[in-house]
Amino acid sequence: MYTLFYYPQSASLAPHILLELIGEPYQLELVDIKKNANRSAQYLKLSPAGQVPALVDDDFTLFESAAISQYLAEKHIDKQLIPTELKLKSQCLQWMHFMSASIHSDLLMYTYPERHTQSALMYDDLIRSQQGRLEQGFGIVDALLQDNHYLFANQFTLCDSYLFMLCERAKTFLERTPSLKNLRRYYRQISATPAINKALEMAEF
Questions:
Q1: Helix intervals (H) in 112-157
Q2: How, if at all, do strands 60-63 and 26-30 pair?
Q3: Each residue of 132-174: pLDDT tens digit?
Q4: Do 56 and 3 touch, CB atoms closer than 8 A?
Q5: The domain that contains 152 carries what CATH number?
Q6: Residues 7 and 52: beta-carbon distance below 8 Å
Q7: What DSSP designation does 37 have?
Q8: Are residues 118 and 171 in the same domain?
Q9: Contact at 8 Å (CB) between 79 and 22?
Q10: What phi, psi does 125 have (nearest 5°)?
Q11: Cα separation of 103 and 89, whole Å?
């Protein structure tokens, strides 16, 4: 059985949605970041940087949301959450890497400026700087959604579970950014997915 170590409103939401779509038995294990549970010796054996999520699959352990998502999608290839053809698969992973390395990183700095400077005087500057970067990054994705219901291959893939996680964490930003109208539409539509609703409900305290 899978065990997903999670925290509400974190990157664990992306693989959690995939677990719901896959339909195999799994259990959730809360890592209470507010109580520094992510820094415990036990959890650091699973995720050396103390980041959430981590996944345990019998005797196999994996951390990093994007890596876990790819593992689940490839292990359950029959669910068609990742393409099997090499070029399509590479494009799919291209968008996963872009969202993980660019948009997610910018979003974390935008949301938690105090983690990136020792001077409180710099918080506003960091937020303004990241606001522009987020607009640009999300804007690239917004353009893709102009004529598409899903991010890639016109079907729900691991890219959509990751993008929804980003939208959920950045929903206030999306509402305040007029140019991201396609992304707001996407977020509203995809929120109706039963697997997403269940994952959100289960991940609450």
A1: 123-144
A2: unpaired
A3: 999 999 999 999 999 999 999 889 999 999 999 999 999 999 9
A4: yes
A5: 1.20.1050.10
A6: yes
A7: G
A8: yes
A9: yes
A10: -65, -40
A11: 20
